[in-house]
Amino acid sequence: MTPKTAKLSTLAAVLCLLASPALAGQCPADMAKIDAAIAAGTSLGDADLATVQELRAEGQSLHDGGDHASSVAILAEAKRMLGIE
Fold first, then answer.
1. What is the pLDDT of residue 11?
2. 3-class DSSP state for residue 77?
3. For position 2, what pLDDT does the model report?
4. Mind listing the pLDDT tens digit for each residue in 1-44?
């Protein structure tokens, strides 16, 4: 490994480590938004609401397992279905 490659690899690793805590903090906020939207009522049909609830549960499971990037992506789909940011 050349010194330049080693520096780039180290930089990439550091950036990954810095991004993980940021994503970890986003998951609970996204789940709270989803929960609030469901509690407030939604015009989604039963099938779509069930899908949102499944996505929300999967996002929680991924978050609990430490896969925050996947959790954020799954929760984003639930938020999109609910029409929230």
1. 56
2. helix
3. 73
4. 677 676 666 655 555 555 455 555 788 999 999 999 999 999 99
CB 1 within 8 A of CB 9: yes
Domain contains 7: no
What is the reported pLDDT for 52?
96
In-domain check, residue 62: yes
- Total domains, the chain: 1
DSSP 8-73: HHHHHHHHHHHHHHHHHHHHHHHHHHHHHHHHH-----HHHHHHHHHHHHHHHHHHHTT-HHHHHH
Q: Which two tokens stand for residue 65?
A: 């397992």
Enclosing domain of residue 43: 21-82
- Does a structural domain hold residue 65? yes
